[in-house]
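Limitations

Structures in this collection are predictions, not experimental determinations, and the ligand pose is part of the prediction. Treat each record accordingly. The example that follows, with alpha-L-arabinofuranose as the small molecule, is included so readers can see exactly what is and is not provided: the inputs are given verbatim, and the output is the predicted complex.
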Amino acid sequence: AQQNAEIIINADQPGPVINKNIYSQFVEHLGRGIYEGIWVGEKSKIPNTQGYRKDVLAALQDLQVPLMRWPGGCFADEYNWRDGIGPRNKRPVKVNTNWGGVEEDNAFGTHEFMALAEMLGSEVYINGNLGTGTPREMAEWLEYMTGEGKSTLAELRRKNGRDKPWKIDYFTIGNEAWGCGGHMTPEYYTNLYNHYATFLKAPSHNMPKLIASGGHTTDTSWAEHLTAHVNPIEKLAAVSFHYYTLPTEDWKVKGAALNFDEGQWISTFVSTWKMDEFIRNNKAVMDKNDPEKKIGFYVDEWGTWYDVEEGTNPGFLYQQNSLRDALVAAVNFNIFHDHADRVHMSNIAQMINVLQAMILTDKEKMLLTPTYHAFHLYKPFQDATYLPVNINHAAPYTFDGKSVPSLSVTSAKGKDGKTWLALVNTNPREAKTVDVSVKGTSVNKATGRVLTAERMDTHNTFDAPETIKPADYSANAQNGKLTLQLPAKSVVVVSLE
Ligand code: AHR
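Predicted complex:
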């Protein structure tokens, strides 16, 4: 018989706090992410509260979204904030040149985004326009949102219906400066960052943390250059980073969201596990310039990116979401927890109807994706204290000449005082038996939920929206020993007593 895998939780060696903002969302003006996805307008037949669809609001409230990043992405570097304020029927109509060339009527602007954040109790992360905006424009946006006195911009905000300044938690200067944000070098961008950051001002008790748009994939030069040359360095709260999971790692033929074979399954996990290596490499260069770890490393875009669903606008990046996506999300959470000393934020791309979404809508219909359920299962990890774990006797999962860990595990002491354990069995064919112990205490019981399904690509549809959802899970210790059975291709999250 195969030896059980063994997990030892080192409760006596607590690590950093797992910042709740690791569970943040990215919301861009892209496809049906905002329009239809969340904003339908007050006159819509879709049931709404002041223009926000009720079903989506309720699902997001239950998800406990800690923070949202808006308005892009590539869109941010062409966005003029003044287009999105004032009476909606007077706002200018523009073309969304990045995403499908569709009309953008600016019905969703600063006030609408901030009201959404207030309804969800989320922090906010505003992405400023460096690509086509001026330092004045960026500085004025921040003044509009945070101004307290009688300045013309604070008065304009009041005239537009918001008396009190908003709290702006994070602000980024540009997006993907190496690509759609202007095809810059790290040296040129760092100069611009210093320039723009000089003029970003807000009352001292409401100054957002400033984030620099950093590198992607294997490139560490952005993190290295920014942490060495931002001046003054106190103006750099974090460097951002983007990495997407593509089954084929080929941007021309990325792989399908559904109906894939086991070869695509394992290559997806090979690709997603690179996140760990890329974070490690960036942390190594940051440790040289910032050994006290004052500067964060925020993965503000990540997730699966497949070939767009046939018959949909290719610029809308709409894709289905299956059990595979839930496991990808969980593996990434576990990686982010392992790097919680620098990774204080991550934003999955994107919240609704775009890429690896939590929620899909089709006019008045809505469904929760397996990725939504993964985020929901991991709620107890928000602001929990990391506990290191030893994993023994877990043979890797191999297929097609490729190999990844069969078990991805994380543990933490929750804010509720409980010890939480999350386990991912990446093997799509074999269940796994795992002996669990916590150093220094005995464990009698594990209680929580499991997410698994029959097929690798099991997913929810608008006609069958509950095909895949979490089920209750529990296990009791026998003769003082707690053993968990993990179904093939599953995520299990339990608290231990
Ligand atoms: O998330 C979609 C796009 O991917 C974002 O707009 C851009 O920053 C990245 O390339």
